[in-house]
Amino acid sequence: MSRGMPSAMAATPNRSAGSAPAFVCGMGLAADTLSAAFLIGTAGAIYAWGFDGLAFGLGVGAGLLLMQLLIAPGLASSRARALPDFFAQRFDGGALRLIASAAVVVTMAPLLVAQLMAAGLAGARLLGSGFATAVAIAGVVLVACLALKRVVGAVWLAALVFALMLVAVLVPTIDLSSEWYGFPLPQLAYSNALWKVQELEETLLFDELADPTYMRTLVRPFLSLSLMNFLGLVLGVAAGTAAQAHVLARHVMARPGREARGGLVWALGFAALLLSATAAVAAYFRLSLMTLIAGRVEIANLPEWVVTFGRLGLLEVCGRPATDAASVTAACAELPDAGPVLRLQDLSVSPDMIFLALPDVAGLGAPIAGLVAAAVIVTAIVTADGPLRALVGALLGGREEPPQVLTCVIAAGAVALAGLAALTRPSDVLTVATWGFLLMAGGIFPALVAAVWWRRASAAGIAAGMLAGVGVGFAYLIATRYFAVDFYETFASLSSAGPMAQEFFGEYKDAWLAAGPGAAKEAAWRMLDTQAQSMADVWGVRPVATALLAMPVSIVVLVVVSLVTPRRERG
Amino acid sequence: MGAVPEQTESAKRRRFPFVALIAWALLAFVVPSLVEPLNLANVLGFPLGFFLVAQGVLIGFVIIAVVSARRHRLVPDEPGDA
């Protein structure tokens, strides 16, 4: 216990840590934290939500700092291999290990699904194959990598991937910044694009090329999320980032404190560099798209990328997937107010498309489009490895040397299930990943902070808090997404829906009840369900801000149960 | 509480980072709340509120991280962390 231990001790060889320089550790940590989901998702969120989409990047930055301040001091050099081990070491409790393992499995699953979705989309774009084929290939590669036990140099590999992520973000944005504004620093140059977009927004409205109800101004805050939900999303992503089981295991627990802290500082810097450039991606995409519409492009003459991304299910024109030029023309001709010219409201762009499609939409050419898609695939597969290992480790229950065959079988099973979930495309990639972060924020973050900082915390308290946090978060996310109609009807008195929305809900419900069986009934149900999803909430807390409900519940349960049970048995 | 130790000892030596957390909360939650008034000003061609949330706050986080890591270096917190 001497404080003056010789510094050579710090250099004791350590699992997977090796002796990589701090900035390499930081790059690896940033890659594993951001993953393909944030790489393609943040630009999409800013495109779709404008200012409100900045909450994701803000949350990741806040979370990396939180990890450094609150979590790393207690976890670095804890000699635990994974989060469940850490809890089991600190408290005597087989039950606690079991619950922590379950929490890790539940929170890692959405991350794995999101990575497979990202790999599938980019793979389908690059290979021109179907989405399902690309997901299957990515899954096989992922399991093969795990089977080959590529642990040595995991940090170096992740660092290389981060370099690739930076290239994928910076090459198109630097190219456009210098071409359009003669200033090769996208983080600053895109201010020009913001003003130009604002101008175009007004032009489109004036020329009746855009419906005001479809227009989300890029710079104006809180059009998509209220301030409370914005802050709740920041809090959830931040706490989730700080408590990521796979990142903590690979980059924090296996290192001495100083190395872990150094890595975290670099990681934050690198993440800031990458995230600040994704806003430029969103701005440039919007500018290109609006320029196209303002130029009165004819629906019969849409650019090639419309069909490319329509086939991936990422782009709808006039309410139908844009799979080929003829069906686009047909769909638009059916609209009652159709004209020959494309309008903003005719397009429905998935947020998943923005990052992948910027090179096409801005006319940067096929090589850069290919580079971006390839970078996304590699990032998705390499950064899916962390969640997969954490998940498999938790399922194996922390055995020291599990049989290789068993590991592979479990991994293959997990990837197959995640792949099937990815095929259903439950939402966009970033939203799916965010579910994982929100569950970590509610379930694991309060437990970790208590284990590190609160000496009165008991094993029972930690376990109960974790269960409550994951339970509330999971129930809220599932209920508001998949049982929205029932949820709204049950909690109507707590919902923040206004009178207009309630009226719509009533109308859709009547229409559904009155509809005859078959396709009509299904269509009516979809309308009703979509409407209900927009109003199913408690006190106005949207699903993205679930942390506002899950974290307080988890903390209260943790504290109360800890106070009524005996102190922790071990240090 | 017989056989404790190591961690409780190091927990004693570890100080809870109140100041850094307050700065963290100011940047993460107070700045976005003030975005509308901040947007009335312009910086480097950006509306100030948008600029701060898109990148200014992230730079602020990095500064807090650097300062807090420097301070930490003076007080080693774990065995082997000299």
Catalogue the unreliable spans of chain B: 1-9, 77-82
- In round numbers, the mean pLDDT of chain B is 79
Percent helix of chain A, as a range, is over 70%
Q: Using the alpha-carbon principal axes, give the shape of chain A.
A: globular
Structural class by helix and strand composition of chain A: mainly alpha
CATH class of the largest domain in chain A: Mainly Alpha
Ends apart, CA distance between termini of chain A: 14 Å
* Gross CATH architecture of the largest domain in chain A: Up-down Bundle
- Oligomeric state: heterodimer
SS-based class of chain B:
mainly alpha
- Report, as a whole number of angstroms, the end-to-end distance of chain B: 28 Å
Shape, per Cα inertia axes of chain B: elongated
How many helices of chain B? The count is 4
**For the largest beta sheet of chain A, what order do the strands appear in spatially?**
2-1-3
- The CATH topology of the largest domain in chain A, please? Sodium/glucose cotransporter
Largest sheet of chain B, if any?
2 strands, antiparallel
Keywords:
heterodimer, A: 571 residues, mainly alpha, Sodium/glucose cotransporter, 3 domains, three-stranded antiparallel β-sheet, 22 helices, globular, B: 82 residues, two-stranded antiparallel ribbon, 2 strands, 67% helix, elongated, disordered N terminus, disordered C terminus
Give a verbal description of the structure.
The complex is a heterodimer of chains A (571) and B (82). Chain A has 22 helices and three strands. In chain A, strand 1 (315-317) and strand 2 (320-321) form a beta hairpin. Chain A has three domains: 21-297 and 352-455, Sodium/glucose cotransporter (Up-down Bundle); 300-340, no CATH class; 496-535. Chain A has 571 residues and is mostly helical. In chain A, helix 10 (257-294) packs across helix 13. Chain B is mostly helical. Chain B has a domain at 42-75. Chain B has four helices and two strands, in the order αααββα. Chain B has helices spanning 6-13, 18-33, 35-38, 48-74, and strands spanning 42-43, 46-47. Chain B has a two-stranded antiparallel ribbon with strand order 1-2. In chain B, strand 1 and strand 2 form a beta hairpin. In chain B, helix 2 runs antiparallel to helix 4 (48-74). Chain B is elongated and about 40 Å long. The two termini of chain B are 28 Å apart. Residues 1-9 and 77-82 of chain B have low confidence and may be disordered. Chains A and B meet through helix 2, helix 7, helix 8 and helix 10 of A and helix 1, helix 2, strand 2 and helix 4 of B.
